């Protein structure tokens, strides 16, 4: 059954008439915020547990880099299939499936007994996580008015940063207290509990949700109708996506964004710990600072996107926050090269991540703009390109460090990519959706 949007005034299956203090669609945003937290707690746990894992399994830094990149590769390759799953079967089935899948492989990470098994489990963990954000984008297309999608995306991704920031010191403590294997078992169980809760609460169309009031239903239908497509519109194929300039712009800029951010999830913790001779908990607390800055960047970027859109500046609402964000990211990375004191370096890296994350609400709102009822597969394709950036980051940092003896080339490459992304955004056109190529 196709999970297509219906914008007609047909009566829903069950509609509550009582006014609600907290609209149902805001509860959806709360659920996706929690999903982002869980997703990034699970993702960053392996970086936090690097010490005991590499010690017990006898891994080198470059081998551990390949373990991190195995996740990024699986995550990147299955973004578009994950988006297609959401578009084809709906966000309810899709998200329940992907959360269950990644949670199983999170738990199995705790059973790894060598380099190869750890590579396989982390690759499959990435495959499982791949469908999460494209599915959220597809759910937001059905559930949220256009004028609310920027901040909703910002809140959604801020959950990832809060989750990762919490995980760095907390997982470091849990690993010390319980061991790294038990830590992954616990995280896997938490994911399965979330999957069950999502299946119970969510409905693909807000009109089908038993708690939705008539007033809120009218707000949603009216707010999304301005850019809706009819249910009979043909689905986007590979040819239509590949021919879209907007799609290539989205992919290119997201590669740069992930190249910057993924460093904080993977190598920042061990880099600070080794460079400044820190205890694990102290390194975790310092590593969380850029992630908190990223959460703030998401809120600022999302608020700017929606505020500009409400003033009638659709194109500017996507471009301007992203351009400002990428300029800040480049400045932060270059500034960190001149900072040798620990707190100054962390502060400048926080500026870089604030800027990088400020671009995310623009990116995902843009995908919904140009993908519409195929927002899942379009956002998945963008995220695939972005996570090729994550894959490159996982390997570029350790190898550039070995080849040059300095982390500086890595940060220079990142700054260059951010400047290029800012230039790309100047050509983005949210008012030009991708059109299916008819046979």
Map the helices and strands.
Layout lengths: L23 H25 L1 H8 L3 H17 L1 H11 L1 H19 L5 H15 L2 H12 L5 H30 L1 H22 L12 H12 L12 H5 L2 H22 L1 H9 L3 H31 L3 H25 L3 H17 L1 H12 L3 H30 L3 H18 L14
Molecular shape: globular
Ranges where pLDDT stays below 50 over 5 or more residues in a row are 1-19, 228-232
In whole angstroms, the N-to-C terminal distance is 23 Å
How many strands in all? 0
H/E series: HHHHHHHHHHHHHHHHHHH
Helices, by number, come to 19
Number of domains: 1
Largest sheet: none
Q: What name does CATH use for the topology?
A: Growth Hormone, Chain: A
Strand content: under 5%
Rounded radius of gyration (Å): 21 Å
CATH architecture verdict: Up-down Bundle
């Amino acid at each position: 059954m196709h999970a297509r949007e219906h914008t007609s005034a047909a009566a829903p299956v069950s509609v509550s008439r009582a006014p609600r203090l907290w609209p149902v669609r805001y509860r959806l945003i709360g659920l996706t915020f929690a999903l982002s937290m869980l997703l990034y707690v699970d993702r960053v746990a392996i970086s936090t547990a690097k010490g005991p894992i590499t010690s017990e399994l006898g891994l080198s830094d470059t081998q551990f880099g390949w373990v991190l990149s195995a996740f990024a590769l699986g995550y990147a390759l299955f973004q578009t299939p994950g988006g297609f799953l959401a578009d084809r079967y709906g966000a309810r089935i899709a998200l329940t499936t992907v959360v269950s899948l990644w949670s199983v492989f999170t738990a199995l990470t705790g059973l790894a007994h060598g380099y190869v098994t750890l590579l396989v489990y982390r690759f499959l963990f990435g495959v499982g996580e791949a469908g999460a954000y494209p599915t959220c984008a597809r759910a937001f297309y059905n559930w949220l008015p256009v004028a609310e999608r920027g901040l909703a995306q910002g809140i959604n991704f801020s959950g990832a940063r809060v989750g990762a920031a919490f995980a760095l010191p907390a997982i470091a403590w849990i690993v010390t207290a319980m061991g790294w294997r038990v830590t992954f078992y616990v995280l896997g169980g938490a994911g399965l509990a979330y999957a069950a809760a999502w299946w119970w609460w969510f409905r693909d169309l807000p009109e089908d949700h038993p708690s939705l009031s008539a007033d809120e239903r009218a707000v949603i239908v009216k707010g999304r109708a301005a850019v809706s497509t009819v249910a009979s519109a043909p689905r986007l194929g590979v040819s239509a996506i590949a021919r879209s300039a907007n799609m290539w712009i989205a992919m290119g800029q997201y590669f740069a964004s992930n190249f910057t951010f993924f460093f904080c999830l993977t190598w920042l913790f061990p880099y600070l710990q080794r460079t400044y001779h820190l205890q694990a908990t102290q390194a975790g607390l310092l590593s969380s600072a850029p992630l908190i800055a990223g959460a703030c960047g998401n809120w600022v970027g999302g608020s700017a996107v929606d505020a500009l859109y409400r003033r009638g500046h659709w194109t500017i609402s996507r471009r301007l926050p992203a351009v400002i964000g990428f300029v800040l990211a480049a400045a932060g990375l270059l500034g960190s090269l001149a900072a040798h004191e620990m707190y100054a370096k962390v502060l400048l890296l926080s500026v870089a991540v604030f800027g990088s994350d400020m671009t995310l609400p623009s990116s995902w709102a843009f995908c919904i703009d140009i993908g519409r009822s195929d927002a899942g597969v379009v956002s998945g394709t963008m995220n695939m390109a972005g996570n090729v950036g994550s894959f490159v980051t996982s390997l570029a940092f350790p190898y550039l460090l070995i080849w040059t003896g300095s982390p500086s080339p890595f940060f220079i490459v990142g700054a260059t990519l951010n400047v290029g992304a800012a230039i790309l955004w100047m050509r983005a056109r949210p008012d030009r959706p991708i059109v299916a190529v008819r046979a």
